[in-house]
Amino acid sequence: MRDHIQRTPHPPSKDYVTLSYYQFRPIPQKEDLLKIQYFFLTDLRAMDVVGRIYVSAEGINAQISCPKDRVKDFKAYYATHWPIFDKIRFNPAMSEGKAFKKLHVRIKGQLVADGIDNSTFDIYNEPTYLTPEEWHNELSSQSTPPILIDMRNHYESSIGHFENAIRPDVTTFKENVDAMLDICKGKEDKEIYMYCTGGIRCTRSGALLKSNGFKSIKMLRGGVTAYGRYIQDQRQQQVAEGRDEEEVKSIYKGKNFTFDKRLGEPITEEVLATCHICGTACDTYSNCSNMACNLLMISCPACQQRHQGTCGSGSCVEMVQELSEKQKKIDKNHPGLRGMKARLGIHPFHEHRLRVRPLKVMENRRNKARL
Ligand SMILES: [Zn+2]
Ligand SMILES: [Zn+2]
C-alpha cells in the first residue's frame, strides 16, 4: 500500500479518464510476466497512458488514466493483443482527470496480499456479481439489515461506507480476510454481501468463502467506484428529465477512498470523519509533508496552513522548514526533495501500520512528551 499514496493532491487535468480493471488468470512463467511488463510499458506509454499496472502469476490488476481521445484505442489494444485478459471489465472512476503522473508496470507476488496460498482454494469459484442497480435495489428493500461486509481498510471505510455495513478496524487486506472469516463463522447458509473499492478484493475473498462451503455470497460488481457512477448517472438523468427536486437516495454515505493522488472522490455530501489534528468535520486525506513521516491523515485547511502541511509534530514542522531552506539553495536541475531525502539519509519514521494510524502516533507522542 505504501507506494500507492501520493503526496499532495494536484488539480486533475480534464482531458483524461481513469479506469480500473483486473482479472485473475494464471500466468505461471516468469518470462511471460517479463514480456507482458515490457509490452505494456512500451505500448501504453506510446498511448500516453499513466498509472499503475500489477501483473503476477495470478493475473492483472490496474488503475490507469488514459487520454480521452485514446480510450477507444486503449480498449481495442487489450481486445486485439491480449486474449489472455478476455474477462477484463473497464471500470471508470467518477471524476475525469489525470490521477497519476507516470506509468508503472510491476511484477508482484500477489495481486491483493492476503497471504493465502492459491492452491488451498478455488479462485475461480467466484461470488455472484450484482450490478450497482441490483445491489442498490436488493439492499434498500431488505426489512432486516443483511450481513454486509466492508472489505476495505479502516482509513478507507472511515470517510465513506454503505449503511449498516460491518467495517472491520483493520490496516491490511490480510487482517480484513481474517475478520471476514470470523464474522462469517457458522453462517454458511446465510446470504452474505461484500464490497470493496473496485471489486478485486471481493472476487478473491468471495471465492475463498465459496470454496469453504458458503452458499450465497454476493458482491458489488465494480465496487464503490461503480456504485458512485451509478448514483451520479441517476442524478444526471433526473436533472435531464426535470425531476431534480427528487433526491436520489444513495445507500453509500460519504467519500470513496482512492489509491491515487486524489485520495478520494465524494459520492454524497455527508462528511463522516474529522480532522485528526483539531477534530472539526473533514474527510480530506493528505500525507504529512515531511516525507520521512509521511503520516496518512485527515487535516482541515486551517490545520494544513497552521502546520505547513505536516501532521503538526514539532519535528516535522522543523524538518520541512529546514528542507525548504536547503531546497532554495539547490540548483534548479536537482531532482528535488526526494533526492535530498536520500542524500540526507532520512529514514522513514513509521512502519506501514502506524503510518495509517495518525491518532495512535499522536497519542504516542503525547505520552512520550509526558515522560
Ligand atoms: Zn484541523
Ligand atoms: Zn509528520
From TrEMBL:
PROSITE patterns: RHODANESE_3. It comes from the Eukaryota. Residues 142-232 form the Rhodanese domain. SUPFAM superfamilies: Rhodanese/Cell cycle control phosphatase. This is Rhodanese domain-containing protein. It comes from Linnemannia gamsii.
